[in-house]
Amino acid sequence: MQEKRFRLKNNIKFHRINKKYIVINPDFANWFVINKDAKSLLKKLDGSKSIKEIEKNINYDKKTIDRLISALSDGNFLMNDDEDNSKPFLNIKYWPPYHIFLNITDDCNYRCLYCYNTSGVTRNYMDQQTAQKIIEQMINLPNNKVCILIHGGEPLLNFPLIKNIVEYIKLTKCNKKIELFIQTNASLMNDEIAKFLNDSGIQISISLDGSEKTHNKWRQYENSKGTYYDTMKGIDILNRNHVKYNVLTVLTSANYSKTGKVVEHFYKQGIDLMGIAYFNPAGRGYKNKSQIQISSNQLYIAMMNLLRKLIKYNGKIKERTISSLLLNILTKKRKNLCMRSPCGAGTSLLSFTPQGDIYPCDDFRHINEFKIGNIWDGDLLNILEKSPVIASFSKRVVDNISKCRECEWKWICCGGCAARAFWTYNTLWKEDPLCDYFKKIIPAMIKVISQKNITYLI
């Protein structure tokens, strides 16, 4: 019987990390780390010789070669006799949307200089009828659960509506899992609100950018006064009432060089979960981007410093962006709505304004060309299925973006953020402007993974 002859697929890439190499199958998001000798062996897999013939000219024993060939086969790196029947990695189709930004007001008592929504300029408040209509329609969609992020502006300015939303959900007696979240600056927190949020099972995220000096650089009142102490007063109230919360930090020129200290600051506050938000040059952020925005290289330095500090604390504090990247690197799961291809905009995620207008993502709120409709236009599923906006976002996959198509990391970064691409290039059909950052951070994280187990950070 003729010996099998294998060859590497044409799309296989090699990425050097010090004295080793990452071998990558971009179409399956598969990779593993090899040494120089293993790379030499792989280069000999060109289909011209059988494995037995290759064994004679390589400094490896048969058992090691068999293990390597088995790993390559399992990862779809090889073609046997020029045949390739394997299907490329394709993300799951997430439909219909199940996660919403419920913007119950666009009013805000802060005037953060990078606010992508320019909150506080208008003072619209969602009414009970609109909130209930949105929730009813979301529950009626054929999905397994509904995640509602109560958002703004500053949502605590409309606290009576939050109470009504919780009561309405109870009255629906819905058998679906409904999760409630709130993003707040915490300045309006009091004992009554803290107790209500806790008793209602609403998961709380606080906008906090680090220490006083760092936070106050961009998170200010209209009179330019810093907001740090008012946010911390709210956090003190939550702590006093034993209410669990996490924090969200926007990475800017004021704190990118201090991410290690930011983690340390939060850890000392007793915070065990944080999230990094990459700056989006929209709203007030667009006007102030020259002062606030950081480069891809600065972002890489910031996130690697962050990773090192998280490892130092051995999982006692976690960060959501690092966690999502690790999950995408190590598994085929794509839990982060912003790290899927297509991204979650319109397919997993919707944003509702106080007036009930529907957008595919909160970062596109108020851009008229991306308006899907209004909750009062009719049946929500029918509105979504007929929307050209939804159709457009569902086609924004990595293989339809020219720079992403040939990239070895395309199914790990998944093309990045459509909103950042739009706000930078005025089109959805370009790569994320943070592309160079992803090309550096992914192999750097793989290098760390190859040296130690950090799955506890997921």
Description:
- With 458 residues, the chain is of the alpha/beta class.
- The protein folds into 2 domains: 5-79, Outer Surface Protein A, domain 3, CATH 3.90.930; 99-390, TIM Barrel (Alpha-Beta Barrel), CATH 3.20.20.
- Helices cover 38% and strands 16% of the residues.
- It contains 19 helices and 15 strands.
- The chain has helices at 36-44, 51-55, 62-74, 128-140, 159-172, 191-199, 212-218, 228-240, 259-268, 284-287, 289-292, 296-312, 320-330, 380-385, 388-394, 402-405, 410-413, 418-425, 435-451, and strands spanning 6-8, 13-17, 20-25, 30-34, 78-80, 99-103, 145-151, 177-184, 203-207, 245-251, 273-278, 318-319, 349-352, 357-359, 373-374.
- It has a 10-stranded mixed beta sheet with strand order 12-11-10-9-8-7-6-13-14-15. Strands 2-3-4 form a 3-stranded antiparallel beta sheet. The protein has a two-stranded antiparallel ribbon with strand order 1-5.
- Strand 8, helix 6 (191-199) and strand 9 form a beta-alpha-beta unit.
- Helix 4 runs parallel beside helix 5 (159-172).
What's the architecture of the largest domain, going by CATH?
Answer: Alpha-Beta Barrel
Name the overall outline.
Answer: globular
Largest sheet: 10 strands, mixed
The stretches of 5 or more residues where confidence is low (pLDDT under 50) are none
Total helical elements: 19
CATH topology of the largest domain: TIM Barrel
Percent of residues in helices comes to: 25-40%
Order the strands across the largest sheet as they lie in space.
Answer: 12-11-10-9-8-7-6-13-14-15
How far is it from the N-terminal to the C-terminal residue, by CA? Answer: 48 Å
Average pLDDT confidence is 92
Total number of distinct structural domains? 2
Class from helix and strand fractions: alpha/beta
Quickly name the level 1 CATH class of the largest domain: Alpha Beta
Strand content: 15-25%
CATH superfamily of the largest domain: Aldolase class I
Counting DSSP E segments of at least 2 residues, the number of strands comes to 15
Cα-based radius of gyration, to the nearest Å? 24 Å
